[in-house]
Amino acid sequence: MTPAIELTQLRKEYGRHVAVDSLNLTVEPGTVFGLIGPNGAGKTTTLRMILDIIRPTSGTARVLDDEPRRGGPALRRRIGFIPGELRLDGRMTGRRMLRFYAEVSGPVPAGAIDDLADRLGLDLSRPVRTLSKGNKQKLGIVQAFMHQPPLLVLDEPTSGLDPLVQREFLRMVDEARANGQTVLLSSHVLSEIQQTADAVAVLSSGRIVAEGDVASLRLGRIRRLRAGLSGVGEQQARAALAQLSQIKDLEIAPAEDGVRVSATVEGEIDPVVKLLAQHRVADLAVEEPDLEESVLRLYGDGAAARRRTGLAGEEDSDA
Fold it and tell me: Beta 151-155 vs 17-27: how paired, if at all?
């Protein structure tokens, strides 16, 4: 089966800076592929080359069995795109703007625009310039999905959306996959990738440093733990927690009735919980760190080395 996206030795230079370096990537049709990494990793630059918004310095890209630079409008009509920095303005209403986009993108099924707007809670009668950032983002989502393109390229699509709308958006992504569409999703929100992606690539300093499914990359195995323990001293708590290899960055401070514990947990959390349960737990919080921290902690050594050589750079901070 022909890949939906196939990148071979793709490279993009801005002067002396290398934004994307020898990138090889294959996205199978009918799948959701997550592209993640810290700011400046090369995500947005990669998406722009896929869409022929910018041209690679070297290497090749094939999208829906065509070359982006040769596919022209016919290829772009087969792609739904949400840019990372969506800029929408004007006096026209959201409905009128979407009708204009429908003329450009091709046939839109009857009722699709209203159905998508209702699901996202978007008022199409309001002028675009009066919409909040979140509602403009909803408008961008509708224009990307409404013509049911074979490929969706989504760069930070849930930026500015409230949690309920984010959940509805993820349902839309699942439905697109079930419909045979391919989704390339760039996100800083690890939970989005965990819930939706069939496969994921981690970018750091313009290179893929890890690739596979989310579970195999262990991205969900880092957590930040904070706990209050009563009836235990600082030395006792430190000695007990230090026995566990999962505990990193351990900090213990005295509290009124015991100690406050702060640590990073890498790996299985069950042994940590069982150890804490041997004492009186006054409070407990286990949080997922942000995506950038997860990526840099797991895969950051090579990225740090490349930064020291000055090989990484982007035109924009989120590229």
Answer: unpaired
Domain count, the chain: 2
Q: How far apart are CA 292 and CA 74, in angstroms?
A: 36
Same domain, yes or no: 101 and 153: yes
The CA-CA-CA angle for residues 74, 79, 80, to 5°, reads 135
Q: What is the CATH number of the domain that holds 271?
A: 3.30.70.260
Give residue 230's Cα distance to chain centre: 39
Give CA separation, 216 vs 198, 199, 308, in Å.
Answer: 12, 10, 28
The closest of 300, 316, 315 to 205, measured between CA atoms, is 300
Last residue of a domain, one of 172, 197, 212: 212
Closest among 24, 26, 22 to 11, alpha carbons compared = 22
Q: How far apart are CA 209 and CA 300, in angstroms?
A: 9
> pLDDT by residue (tens digit) across 245-301?
989 899 999 998 899 999 989 888 899 999 999 999 999 999 876 655 666 666 654
CATH number at residue 145: 3.40.50.300
pLDDT one-digit tens code per residue, 124-170: 999 999 999 999 999 999 999 999 999 999 999 998 899 999 999 99
Tokens 């990494």 belong to 37
Q: Do the bridges between strand 222-230 and strand 280-287 make them parallel or antiparallel, or are there none, so unpaired?
A: antiparallel
**Distance of alpha carbon 309 from alpha carbon 229, whole angstroms:** 45
